[in-house]
Amino acid sequence: MPCILFLHLLIPELLQCSYGDQSRELAETDNKLLEIAIEGGDKVSTDDIKDIHHEHAHSHAHAHAQTRTDMDHIDPSLMVFFTLKELKVGKTMPIHFPKRDPATSPKLWPKEQADSVPFSLNRLQYLVKLFSFSPNSPQARAMQSTLSECESKPIKGEVKFCATSYESMLDFTHRIIGLKTEVQSFATFHQRKSSVTFQNYTISEIVMAIEAPKMVACHTMPYPYAIFYCHSQESGNRVYSVLLDGDNGDKVVAMVVCHLDTSQWSPSHVSFQVLGVTPGTSSVCHFFPADHLIWVPKLQTHGSSTM
User: Is 188 left (phi over 0), alpha (psi -120 to 50) or beta?
Assistant: First the structure.
């Protein structure tokens, strides 16, 4: 394996965390802990992770009792959720955007190269050794979590696939959207960004709205090279591109997915805790980080500045 590939392992911030939970969309405590573990290297102990897990589990359990504008008492990384009725010009809300640069993030390997390396939980011991990690290191646990997530059973109405190459991602997208359907991808873009990851943003324009009965969302996963957790759900979705103006001067062209039917989601889904709603009673919308992708059919879009 070329030495340059191992450089990704030496730059912790390039090993990204996916948005998980049973719908595989939202930030779950375990994946956040993996990101902390990766960034901290071998200095993070098992007891440290257990302590942090307990703290986050406690805060998640009480998140529904807190207001979304109380930026001092809620986990900032959870502030990406809102409801469809809030999607309107002039709306201000606190939002967390990780400062990840897709240009410097790990790239998907070519299919031939990716296919030459096993991607299987039962080969974990071999993979950990291949990438020169110690068996009990945070990096090894992160790899185990990603492989377990990729091999786990999908929720009802979900089709999922972990892409290890661009070709495999595109093949999966076409299987979902249509083998002969032309597709296009969208991602969040930071036009102007500061070092602040959490601030109030105001929706200044709704650039695009797409009805997306068939769409594929692909989320980065913690791994030595780029892995995308791609999935699609049968329930109705809408995709939006909105222009956000941050209080700190940031400008973001942000991608949003709104799930119109949440009746099949787990009651413990973190979005319900943040929004104070229950499955099937409300739509759930969320912003996408810059290194996640949304695939939709290449359809005519509808631009608007009001809703």
Answer: beta
Query: What is the mean predicted confidence (pLDDT) over 289-306?
Result: 73
Where are the domains positioned within the chain? 76-297
Q: Which two tokens stand for residue 104?
A: 């410097």
Whether the CB-CB separation of 115 and 108 falls below 8 Å is answered with: no
Compute the C-alpha angle 234/235/238, nearest 5°: 115
User: CA-CA distance, 168 to 164, in Å (whole number)?
Assistant: 7
State pTM to two decimals: 0.73
- At residue 286's C-alpha, the angle toward residues 293 and 17, to 5°, is 55
Q: Are 217 and 293 in contact (CB under 8 A)?
A: yes
Give the whole-angstrom CA distance, residue 93 versus residue 240.
16
Helices (H), 119-186: 124-130, 138-151, 166-177
What pLDDT, in 10s, does the model give residues 257-292? 999 888 888 898 899 989 999 999 999 999 999 989
Contacts for 41-48 with beta carbons within 8 Å, 24 or more apart? 41/12, 41/137, 41/138, 41/139, 42/134, 42/137, 42/138, 44/138, 46/136
Cβ atoms of 30 and 20 closer than 8 Å = yes
pLDDT digits (tens, 9 = 90+) for 57-110: 333 333 333 334 444 456 788 899 999 999 999 999 999 998 776 677 778 899
* Residue 269: DSSP 8-state: -
Strands 189-192 and 198-211: unpaired
- Confidence bin at 19 (pLDDT 50/70/90): very low
For the record, the structure tokens of 270 come out as: 């973190």
Burial label for 235, CB within 10 Å (0-12, 13-18, 19+), is middle
The DSSP string of 126-143 is HHHHHTT--TTSHHHHHH
- Name 209's bridge partners: 240, 302
Strands (E), 196-271: 198-211, 216-220, 228-233, 237-246, 251-259
